[in-house]
Amino acid sequence: MENKSLAGGRFLLVTVLNVVITVFELLGGLLSGSLSLLSDAFHNLGDAVSVVLSYVAHRIGRRRQTRQNTFGYRRVEILTALLNAGVLIVISVILAVEAIRRLLAPEPVKGDVMLLVAIVSFAANLLSTILLNHGAKHNLNIRATYLHLLSDALASIGVIIGAILITVWQISWVDPTITILVAGYIVYESWPIVKQTFAILMEGAPKLDYDAIAHDICALPEIKGVHHLHAWQIDENNLVFSVHVNMQDLPLSQIEPVYRQIEALLCHKYNVNHVTIQAECYRGKDESLFYKQNDWRHD
User: Fold this and answer.
1) What is the pTM of this model?
2) Are 153 and 27 spatial neighbours (Cβ–Cβ below 8 Å)?
């Protein structure tokens, strides 16, 4: 039920909210001369695009496997998460550069207008983050979008504080300083998503205790050795695993129950979703757990 709601009404409401906030903040930023409001407006524009992309990717990712895509379409969500996080970082760097320019050459800011717009924006951004909070715990794509929205909610708090300082004490350097701080926070939060999505797209191995896995498999009485182990992720929740095992020369009817034991072990203890096992008697028994290039040429 949660996936359906995330893919439907919540995405639509969050998109509408961010479009409205973007227009409101652009007008407020131009009227007040506030860079932090303008930066928040651009972030909200990015949020609106991010939410639409997340919705489309979420729908595509739920499609069944086909002959052309035998693992399904989950990687679409990973690509979208990488794009969203990457765009956030680029926008943050651009705004930080502009903020530094403003620090060196301060410009007047209307604190009262800035404060009103920031309060309304904070309320809308907070509502958006609440709407996507649950899905962000289980999905990188939604998490990247959630971070977009959370960063804007935090930015709005900074803008509110800055507006109060500007209105009461006319401290003009507060506005670009807040922009730099928020930009730094966004980069800090976005970079782990970039690393994780890039690792998945590069077929990086998930963090598992492979020596323990090999030990557990070899503990089965029929198994004499393990080699050529491979593990990768389709997305952050689905692990794929393949391994060659050396066994006694048994008929297939006796090998299949051993396969089921290995699959159960990997599923229940290591959260592996899809297992491929190749049984061999003597071939590869002296080869390494992880294949070397010379080993691969022998296959």
Assistant:
1) 0.68
2) no
